[in-house]
Amino acid sequence: QVQLVESGGGLVQPGGSLRLSCAASGFTFISYYMSWFRQAPGKGPEWVSTINNGGEATTYADFVQGRFIVSRDNAKNTLYLQMNSLKPEDTARYSCARVVGYNDADRRFEYDYRGQGTQVTVSS
Questions:
Q1: Which of 42, 67, 68, 119 is deepest in the core (most CB within 10 A)?
Q2: For 5-31, how does the pLDDT look when each residue is reduced to its tens digit (9 = 90+)?
């Protein structure tokens, strides 16, 4: 069965860095675009970034402002999110999701599986 397992979260001071990983199994990883989401307490899920299946094309939410880098290692079936210059407002649970389509009307990717997530807390 499809499994997405995130790791790498933790407590970091403002300005610090973290590298999140998403280990995928149960499907042909290289065949799918993948995305990162985050959800802060009391808020809905927020899209962070998407990477195409080959890893050559990436897109980010405006709030990233050049601080995050999404990448993937298809040989290891793993998705990454390098997060730099972290801010307290980046505090959230970060999860990865498998892309299965794109809705032209809503201009949004569509997903079928999402992992449980890993907690990132940015605080001094």
A1: 68
A2: 999 999 999 999 999 999 999 999 999
